[in-house]
Amino acid sequence: IQIKTISSSSHHIMAIARWLNQTVGLFVFFLLDILDFLLCFTYKTLDFFFESEWKPCYCSSPLEAQAKTRKIIVSERGEYSKVVSMTRTKIHFDEISDTLYSRGPSLLMRLSKLVSSVKCFNYKGVIMRGSVVESCDHNYESKKKISSGNKKRLMTLNSTVVEKSPTTPRWSDCNCSFCTSWLSPSNKDSLFVKVQQPKDNKKARDNVLFIHGFLSSSSFWTETLFPNFSDSAKSNYRLIAVDLLGYGRSPKPNDSLYTLREHLEMIEKSVIAQYKLKKFHIVAHSLGCVLALALTVKHPGAIKSLTLLAPPFYKVPKGVNPAQYVMRKVAPKNIWPPMQFGASLISWYEHLGRTVCLVLCKSHRLVDSLTRLFTLNRMRTYLIEGFLCHIHNGSWHTLHNIIFGSGGKLESYLDHVRDHVDCDVTIFHGGKDEVIPVECSYSVKTKVPRATVHVIPDKDHITIVVGRQKDFARELELIWQRSTTTNK
Predict the structure, then answer these.
(1) Nearest CA among 76, 55, 77 for reference residue 64
(2) What is the per-residue pLDDT for 381?
(3) Residue 248 CA to chain centroid, in angstroms?
(4) Strand 71-76 to strand 81-86: parallel, antiparallel, or no bridges (unpaired)?
(5) Tens digits of per-residue pLDDT, 347-387?
(6) What is the distance between the terminal CA atoms of the chain, rounded to a whole angstrom?
(7) Cα–Cα dist 462/353, whole Å
(8) Keyword Nucleotidyltransferase, does the record have it (predicted)?
C-alpha cells in the first residue's frame, strides 16, 4: 500500500510539473514571439543602415525567403520547396526545409506575413540593376510541365530574385582573422581539414574521416581523440577531421543555403578528392551522422566502418510532414530542461538566434579570454571555439535544411545501408542525452539490425566523448581493427 501511495504521489508531482512547464512555457514563448517580431523590423532597419539594402527573412513567405542568392525558389504541388541553382554546365535542385518559413501557428508570424505581402503587392515594378533583376510581383507564376515517363508534374516558379550577396562578413558577423581566414584565395573554395598523418606516409593502412556535430568544429576530435590514440593507431591510420561548411575555419558564404548537396559536395571536394580516398572509416556525431549516412549511400563501396554518435533519427508516422515532425521532437517548445529551451530558441526564432550570434559569436575572443582568466587558464577552450565560431546564416540553414529537412530521408538512407552497404555499423549514445534521446539510436538498430548500440550511462550529448576520450579512442581502434579483419 505504501509503495502504491508513493507511486501515485510521484505521478501527481510529474503531472503538475508537466502542467507548469506547458503553462509557463506558453507565456514565455508568447513573449518571445513578440520579441522576435520586433527584432524582425529592427534588423531590417539595421541591415539597410549598414549594408544599404533591405534583407529578406523567413518571417514573410517562401516567396521572399532568402531571395538574396543566385538561386530560384521553386515549389512542386504537394511537395517541398526546392532551390534551383544554375552554373554554366548544370542545373541543381536542392530541397529546402519548409520549417524555414513555416514553424507553427504564431499569430505574430501570420501578421508579419500579411504585412510583408501587402507591401510587396503594392509594388509591382521590376528594378533593373545592371545584370541584376529583382522582381517583387508575387502574382507572377510561371508554369512548367516536366515529363517523367508518362507522368507530368506541374511546377510553379515563386520568386526570381537573383542578386548575389558579397562574401565579406555581414555587419552582425565576426570579422576576426580566425573567422575570416577562409577568405584568402587558397582557402576560399575548400573546407578546413586537420590531418594527422603517420610519420611514414607509405605505412598508412587506412583513412578515418571525422565529422563533427551542430555548433561544433574539428577541434571536437583533434583536441580529444587525436592525442589519445595508441602509437599503433597513429602509425597505421591517417586521421582526417573537417570543419563543416559554415563552421570553424571553413568557408562561411553569405549566399549559401547550406543544403545537403552543398555540404556533401564540399566534403567530397575537400577530403575525398583532395586526399584520394578509395576506402575509409567514418566517425560522426549528431548532425554529422546525417551527412555520414548520405555519404555512405553515395559512396557505398568506399565505407569500411560507420560509427555514429547520437544519430538524430526519428521514426516519422505516416501522413505527417517529416521536417515539421522532427523539428517538434528536437525543439518541442519547452522551458525545461534548459537544453530543450535553448534548442527551441534557436530553432523557432530566426531573429532571436541572430541576436545570440551577434552577442556571443561576434565576441567569441572576449568569451575565450574571460574563460581563461576566471579559470586561471586551467580550462581548455576548444569547445567555445566550436560553439561560437560560426555565422547565423550558416547555423540557421544547416539546422533546418539538414537536421529537420532530412527527417524524411534518413529512413531510406538506413534502408540502403542495410541492404546495399557491407560495413560494420556501431552506435554510441549518452544515457543522459537531453538533446537527442537514446530511442533514436535504438530506432536506427530496428532499421539496420546488424548495428551494435552502446549506451554510455551518466553521459550526455558532449561527455559521450569529452571526458572519456581515452576509452572512446580504444573503442574506435577495436572497431577499425575488427572491420579490417572482416573485410579481409
Answers:
(1) 55
(2) 86
(3) 14
(4) antiparallel
(5) 999 999 999 999 999 999 999 999 988 888 777 889 998 89
(6) 61
(7) 21
(8) no
> How far is Cα 224 from Cα 227, in angstroms, rounded to an integer?
7
Q: Using omega within 30 degrees of 0 as the cis cutoff, is the peptide bond preceding 337 cis?
A: yes
If DSSP codes are grouped into helix, strand and coil, which group holds residue 163? coil
Active-site annotation holder among 212, 392, 397, 400: 212
CA distance 418 to 468: 30
Grid cell listed for 468? 572519456
The residue with cell 587525436 is: 226
Q: Can 243 be counted among the known catalytic residues?
A: no
pTM of the model: 0.84
All residues at 6 or more sequence positions from 227 whose CB lies less than 8 Å from its CB, including other chains: none
Phi-psi region for residue 256, left (φ > 0), alpha (ψ -120 to 50) or beta?
beta
**Partners of 86 in beta bridges:** 91
Rg of the chain taking only CA atoms, in angstroms: 24
Alpha carbon distance 283, 206 (integer Å): 13
**Residue 212 falls in the annotated catalytic set:** yes
Distance CA 25, CA 20 (A): 8
**Separation of CA 385 from chain center:** 17
Cα distance between residue 404 and residue 445, in whole Å:
20
Tell me which of 286, 305, 347, 483 is the catalytic residue.
Answer: 286
Among residues 298, 237, 205, 229, the alpha carbon closest in space to that of 488 is found at: 205
For residue 461, indicate whether it is catalytic: yes
The 10s digit of each residue's pLDDT in 207-266 is: 999 999 999 999 999 999 999 999 999 999 999 999 999 999 999 998 889 999 999 999
Report residue 337's pLDDT band, with 50, 70 and 90 as the boundaries: confident
Letter string b/e over residues 350-388, b meaning 16 or more CB atoms within 10 A of that residue's CB: bbbbbbbbbeebbebbebbeeeeeeeeeeeebbbbbbbb
Cross-strand bridge partners of residue 142: 157
- Which among 263, 433, 460, 483 is annotated as catalytic? 433
Distance CA 365, CA 350 (A): 24
Question: Which cell numbers in the block locate residue 464?
Answer: 559521450
Structural element, H or E, at residue 398: helix 392-398
263, 392, 429, 461: the catalytic one is 461
Is 416 a known active-site residue? no
Q: Is the dihedral angle over the CA atoms 380, 209, 472, 450 positive or is it negative?
A: positive
Cβ atoms of 61 and 48 within 8 Å: the answer is no
Cβ distance 465 to 309 under 8 Å?
A: yes
Residue type at 342 in one-letter notation:
G
